[in-house]
Amino acid sequence: MRSGEYWRTLVLSSMAAVVCGAVDVQAAMVRPAAASPQAVTDVEADADADADADRSGAAPAAQSGGKQGKAAGRSQAKPRDGATAPQDAQAPMTLPAASGAAVEAAGIAAVVPVDEPPAVKVEGHIGVRLSNQSEYEGAKGRKTFAAPNLEITFNDRFFFSITDSMGLDIGADAKPQAGVYLVSTEALKVGLAVSYESAFDKKGEQSIYAADTAVAPDLRLFATYTFGYNQVAARYTRVLGGSQSEKLSVGAFHLFELRPDLTLTVGGSVTWANQKAVNALFDPVTTVPDGFGGTITARASDLIELSGGVAKRPSAGIKSVDAVVALEYWFSKSLSFELIGAVVYLTDNVRGTPAAETPWVSGVSTIVKHHF
User: Mean pLDDT across the chain, nearest whole number?
Assistant: First the structure.
């Protein structure tokens, strides 16, 4: 009976070894707390003892030999946990013992989970820019100022930025904004952001906005789609307070790789604005003395007409057409210098209105960026 049990064990263990042949048997033999290889060694020792008893015909001797065989079998099994085997030890493990260890190792490896803490991915750039541009859309005067330029994303989902792309509606750029990407892939990005006028924006536009509205946050919904070296972009902006103006800009851009360390981007956009937006920009509410010690507050066009003049009022529709060129040189993978130039042409919907002194708006910026 013991001989039959041995052969059944041998056959089953050999089949398991074939199935789990990819498991490292040497690693399995040193795994702690593996009971199956030891049990098979005991069975093997019992079988050897029975065979000796049958040949000698002495049952007492067989029983004694069986006990000795068990002891010998335990001493000959390969030590675990890095112990060193005796020099006179026999073969460390038979095929049934090795295959049993392999089966156990495969079972343990299948159920042990690998937990890795989620990494926080932070990308973007920080830098500074020096700009010279029109004081506001339609102004003949210009302003020069320095400002931070940064864009930081967290896990390709949340972001904070103060950028000066001048690509979509030059007058709305360079405002701090924080938001979330609703869709974020290599090709398509769709985001929602909240922005507000920064100190350097307000300083240049205060003359036309002061009487019309206090500084109010903007809600922005934007999308970009990139294919090859081309990109199309759209941005919808609504002022949540004050003038409650709305604007929609749509543009297209192409990148030329002049050299591995030098790129040129060219493109343009068209911007639509509602009536409240063009009123706030080009026909603002203004307060002037009435000549009798008091003041009169009205829109600029109304004040011009009250004084006997003729004024043109802005109308909703296509507000402007923009063109932009950007040249960026990479000193290294983490440091670049960018030169941006943009020109905006005001359409007839707003040209000739009280605040539009000229139909041309322009701006130039130099930016130094550290990328990470």
Answer: 73
* Amino acid at position 163, single letter: T
Terminal C-alpha separation, the chain: 73
Please give the Cα distance from 138 to 347 (Å, whole number): 11
Q: DSSP letter at 116?
A: -
Write the pLDDT tens digit of every residue in 119-134: 889 999 999 988 888 8
Q: Is 354 helix (H, G, I), strand (E, B) or coil?
A: coil
B/e letters for 109-125, b = 16+ CB within 10 Å, e = fewer, are eeeeeeeeeeeeeeebb
pLDDT tier at 90 (50, 70, 90 boundaries)? low
Place of tokens 């307060």: 287
d(CA 95, CA 21): 12
Instruction: Report which of residues 42 and 116 the model is more confident about.
Output: 116
Q: Please, what's the b/e burial string for 266-282 (b: 16 or more CB within 10 A of its CB; e: otherwise)?
A: ebbbbbbbbebbbbbbb
Residue 146: phi and psi, rounded to 5, are -110, 150
Place of tokens 């098979």: 40
- The token duo for 316 is 């909703």
**Mean pLDDT computed over 15-21:** 45
Residue 248, pLDDT above cutoff 80: yes
Task: Tell me which residue of 89, 105, 112 sits closest to 31, measured CA to CA.
Answer: 105
**Distance (Å, whole) CA 174 – CA 34:** 67
Token pair in block for residue 222: 């934007």
d(CA 311, CA 174): 32
Between CA 260 and CA 257 the distance in angstroms is 7
Q: Report helix, strand or coil for 128.
A: strand
pLDDT band at 317; cut points 50, 70, 90: very high
Please tell me the pTM assigned to this model.
Answer: 0.64
Q: How far apart are CA 282 and CA 274, in angstroms?
A: 12
Main-chain dihedrals φ then ψ at residue 321, nearest 5 degrees: -125, 125
- Count Cα atoms within 13 angstroms, Cβ side, for 69: 20
